[in-house]
Amino acid sequence: MIAKPATMPDRFGRSVEAIQALMTDLGMGQHALFDEVGEGTLFPDSTEAMSGHVSDESGRIFMFWTDWDAARGRPVFTTWQQVEPASSLSDSSEYREARAAVGLA
Q1: CB-hemisphere CA count at 13 Å for 43?
Q2: Distances in Å between the alpha carbon of 15 and those of 10, 67, 81, 87?
Q3: Cys-Cys link to 98, which of 34, 35, 46, 64 (CB 3.0-4.6 A)?
Q4: Would you say 43 and 68 are in contact if contact means Cβ atoms under 8 Å apart?
């Protein structure tokens, strides 16, 4: 008998969902992630530590990094800070797509 492969949850997708929930908690309006990357640390809920950037409808850019909050039993932002976009950022297709996703040219 051949065992059927088990379907693994999409760790990246679950991690992005957790980040979206954190941004909702912060009261973010329209926003789009870009340059997000899994950092290799798995949390007890099967999500992964992630870092990356967020663009909002006002054109602001935020840098983030997640970690696990054992007291609350969920991911949290350990870094969440507004940053000035580097001039080279306009060369990034992910950045341009994020801006377009929030209605910016």
Answers
A1: 22
A2: 9, 11, 19, 29
A3: 34
A4: yes
Beta strands in 3-60 (DSSP E): 31-42, 48-56
How far apart, in whole angstroms, are the C-alpha atoms of residue 80 and residue 40? 19
Q: How confident is the model at residue 8 (pLDDT cuts 50, 70, 90)?
A: very low
* pLDDT tens digits along 17-42: 999 999 999 999 999 999 999 999 99
pLDDT in tens, 28-80: 999 999 999 999 999 999 899 999 999 999 999 999 999 999 999 999 999 99
Residues 6+ apart with CB under 8 A from 57: 29, 30, 31, 102, 103, 104
On whether the CB atoms of residues 75 and 66 are closer than 8 A, the answer is: yes
Q: Identify whether the C-beta of residue 64 lies closer than 8 Å to the C-beta of residue 48.
A: no
Q: What is the pTM of this model?
A: 0.84
